[in-house]
Amino acid sequence: MAAELYSAHFGFSERPFSLSPDPDFLFLSKAHARAFSVLEYGLMTHAPLTMLTGEVGMGKTMLLQALLRNIDEDITLGLVSNAQGDRGDLLRWVLNALDVALPQDTDYVSLFQHFQNFVVQEYAAGRHVVLIIDEAQNLGSEMLEELRMLTNINSGKDELLQIILAGQPELRTLIAQPQLRQFAQRVTATYHLNPFSRADSAAYIRHRLQQVGGTGDEITAAAISHIHHEAEGIPRSINKLCDLALVYAASAGNTVVGKPIVNELIRDGLILKPAPPLLVLTERVDTSEKAAE
């Protein structure tokens, strides 16, 4: 209700800083534009494996949704998110995403055969299968190796299956393991999204304000600078701070969000941050000969 009230107060058509990924609000910083180009390149070249990584809240899912808006009609798409388990579980996730119905007790060999038949049939019908795995850092080494094996299905000269992986930075660490070197070699294109610069954050905030009918100046430059610092350049954290700052401003009857409002909501403890690592103190033991005496 408070958010709806601030939208009316500022004359916005809707909330400019909702946390839900919405391609209508897509903002392409230089890094995001490059990441999007890498995803498009992967699709266009039928790359077997394309990978996008970045911290939580960096907009990876938003980019994927924007990519799906422009996908060709001859592509059969499957979207898997938060898949976990063993290789048999992975195949069930994949087949479910592709709307391939199977009995519950189907064994692994039958699962693989159903998948292979489906991919080949789609190719024969002039279609190309694309599988998008979101939150791919949750996959273990076994499941990633299974994905690589799936990309081995081909027609002799054409790749019949293309996989796009999106995940947190741990995904890069996982793939760097020696046992996954064959997987890493099949990754044709990869991009890592870093947090916004201060200029990016300012442009991002103004862009979202203007998308809902604002002027872009409803949040002052000083407040934007403070928000960028507190959010550490992470878009989702920027959204949280801006959304609450607009609520605070509207409740006080202000038409502009200044730095004092941002300070106030931070003092009120409305933004949770990860606790710093604990400092462990250990007693130093002197093992020298002098100490022994």
Tell me about this structure:
The structure is a single chain. By secondary structure, the chain is an alpha/beta fold. The chain has 2 domains: 2-20 and 198-267, Helicase, Ruva Protein, domain 3 (Orthogonal Bundle); 30-193, P-loop containing nucleotide triphosphate hydrolases (Rossmann fold, 3-Layer(aba) Sandwich). It has 13 helices and 5 strands. The chain has helices at residues 2-10, 30-44, 60-69, 87-97, 108-124, 141-150, 170-175, 181-186, 198-211, 221-231, 235-251, 259-267, 289-292, and strands at residues 49-54, 75-81, 128-134, 161-167, 187-193. The chain has a 5-stranded parallel β-sheet, sandwiched between helices. Strand 3, helix 6 and strand 4 (161-167) form a beta-alpha-beta unit. The chain is elongated and about 65 Å long. The model is unreliable at 275-293 (pLDDT under 50).
CATH architecture tag of the largest domain: 3-Layer(aba) Sandwich
Uncertain stretches: 275-293
Could you give a short account of the major beta sheet? 5 strands, parallel
Structural class: alpha/beta
Number of domains: 2
Distance, first to last CA: 74 Å
Query: Could you give the order of the helices and strands?
Result: HHEHEHHEHEHHEHHHHH
**Strands across the major sheet, in which order?**
2-3-4-1-5
Pfam families: AAA_22 (PF13401)
Protein name: AAA+ ATPase domain-containing protein
InterPro entries: AAA+_ATPase (IPR003593), AAA_22 (IPR049945), ExeA_AAA_ATPase_DNA-bind (IPR052026), P-loop_NTPase (IPR027417)
Domain AAA+ ATPase: 46-188
